[in-house]
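Tip: read the tokens left to right.
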């Protein structure tokens, strides 16, 4: 006969309810021999432990209240103090979206920051396991993240940037290629003819060069612009930019760095009078600008929805084939671009 509850399984084995519950959660406090016995008995009886229900009951007993929302750990891989102030707003929007989605689905979020107060991956692993937290939501990091030392057999995780390899997790991020195509179409609508891309090479390298690839591909398959070679540099500063700007003569510059507006004006340009500036991420711009809203709030929502779905399906561990969900940017008009003019624009081939 199939066993339907932990208490029934405990009675069958002659063990306490707490011991069986801990064994099913792979709690290290239970002896290995006992844990193996419980797991084998559960498998033979066709009993499948629901970790979310177990965590819910554990929290109810601990807090003494009758309502509970499961906890998802939001992991910041770097202290916010190490992050440029312009990037902090992007992370805040991600957090807002993730928290809203979690609350709507009956969960709450808790932030953990690696590096702060010497919180290591190993210490984080211990904290999360002791509290029965199995969902891990990873915020973007400036460098390639490495959180492989977390015991992923116990956790379900998702990353909110383009690629993570240590370990290879599912991710949700901006669709950078499609977003560049959106920007190019919009700039044509505005009447620009010589768009130029300016970027630090490392910024695009971590995205497998999707910004540059989309920019070049658009030029290759469309004849609506005069092709301006992009400026991809190790470090973006006034000297290489001004040399490129004077040589290539773009009429609108696409970049993540709004510093270029000042450099353009130092060369006699007027923004948006004679030239335009298109921000590739208006959320991180240190000035009000037109361009692309990469929609971090929506990315946070979609990522949290996917993570909680994994928890409900008991999908723990590193996926055999990680998937990437991408969100296209939204166009945001702004004072650094010319007023919209009713002009025909080319369609991508």
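Filled-in amino acids:
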């Amino acid at each position: 006969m199939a066993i339907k509850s932990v208490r029934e399984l405990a009675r069958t084995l002659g063990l306490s309810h707490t011991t069986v519950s801990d064994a099913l959660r792979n709690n290290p406090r239970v002896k290995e021999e006992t844990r193996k016995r419980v797991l084998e008995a559960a498998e033979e009886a066709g009993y499948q432990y629901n970790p979310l229900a177990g965590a819910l009951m554990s929290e109810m007993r601990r807090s003494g209240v009758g309502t509970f929302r499961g906890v998802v750990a939001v992991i910041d891989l770097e202290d916010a103090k190490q992050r440029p102030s312009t990037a902090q707003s992007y992370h805040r929007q991600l957090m807002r979206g993730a928290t809203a989605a979690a609350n709507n689905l009956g969960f709450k979020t808790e932030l953990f920051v690696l590096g702060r107060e010497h919180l290591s991956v190993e210490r984080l692993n211990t904290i999360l396991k002791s509290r029965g937290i199995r969902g891990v939501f990873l915020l973007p990091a400036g460098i390639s993240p490495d959180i492989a030392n977390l015991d992923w057999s116990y956790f379900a995780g998702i990353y909110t940037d383009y690629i993570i390899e240590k370990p290879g997790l599912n991710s949700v991020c901006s669709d950078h290629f499609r977003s560049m195509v959106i920007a190019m179409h919009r700039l044509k609508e505005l009447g620009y003819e010589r768009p130029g891309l300016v970027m630090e090479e490392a910024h695009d390298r971590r995205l497998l060069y999707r910004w540059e690839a989309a920019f070049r591909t658009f030029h290759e398959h469309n004849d609506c612009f005069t092709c301006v070679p992009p400026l991809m540099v190790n470090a973006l500063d006034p000297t290489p930019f001004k040399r490129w700007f004077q040589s290539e003569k773009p009429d609108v510059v696409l970049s993540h760095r709004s510093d270029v507006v000042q450099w353009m004006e130092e060369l006699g340009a007027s923004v948006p009078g004679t030239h335009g500036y298109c921000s590739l991420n208006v959320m991180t711009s240190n000035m009000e600008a037109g361009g692309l809203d990469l929609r971090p709030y929506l990315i946070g929502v979609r990522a949290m929805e996917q993570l909680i779905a994994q928890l409900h399906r008991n999908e723990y561990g590193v996926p055999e084939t990680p998937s990437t969900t991408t969100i296209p940017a939204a166009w945001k008009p702004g004072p650094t671009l010319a007023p919209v003019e009713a002009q025909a624009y080319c369609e991508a081939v």
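The chain has three domains: 6-49, 70-175+296-328, 176-294. Residues 64-68, 340-349 have pLDDT under 50 and may be disordered.
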